[in-house]
Amino acid sequence: MKNLSIRVIIGILFSAIGMVSLFITREALTAAIWLSFGNGLILSDLKFTQTDEKGNAYQKPVPKLRMYTAIFLIVLAVILLGLQVVMDLQSDVTA
């Protein structure tokens, strides 16, 4: 539990909301927004503990590839949210 920061906990919460919204409302775009943002937060800040040859515990830094993937997922969530807003505005105009 020591390696779970506030961002990781919020990411887990957002991912859980995304899964619940997928199962209950069956709206894939809304679930994708929640899941993408939550998984991006989890990937960006989850750090693992490892022991060195002397037996001392230390936290490994977040790898660059995982950080780039997290940034991509968060940007994707924002783009999907914009797409959701545009689709909702278009459905309001036509209705």
What key attributes describe this structure?
95 residues, mainly alpha, two-stranded antiparallel ribbon, 3 helices, 2 strands, 6% strand, transmembrane helix, transmembrane, membrane
Describe the structure.
This protein is mostly helical. The chain has one domain. The protein is built from 3 helices and 2 strands, in the order ααββα. α1 runs antiparallel to α2. The longest helix is centred in the last third of the chain and has 31 residues, at 64-94. It starts with 5 loop residues before the first helix and ends with a helix. The model has no long low-confidence stretch (mean pLDDT 87).
Gross morphology is elongated
Into how many domains do the coordinates divide? 1
Percent of residues in helical segments? over 70%
Distance between the termini: 49 Å
What structural category characterises the helix and strand content? Answer: mainly alpha
- What is the residue-averaged pLDDT? 87
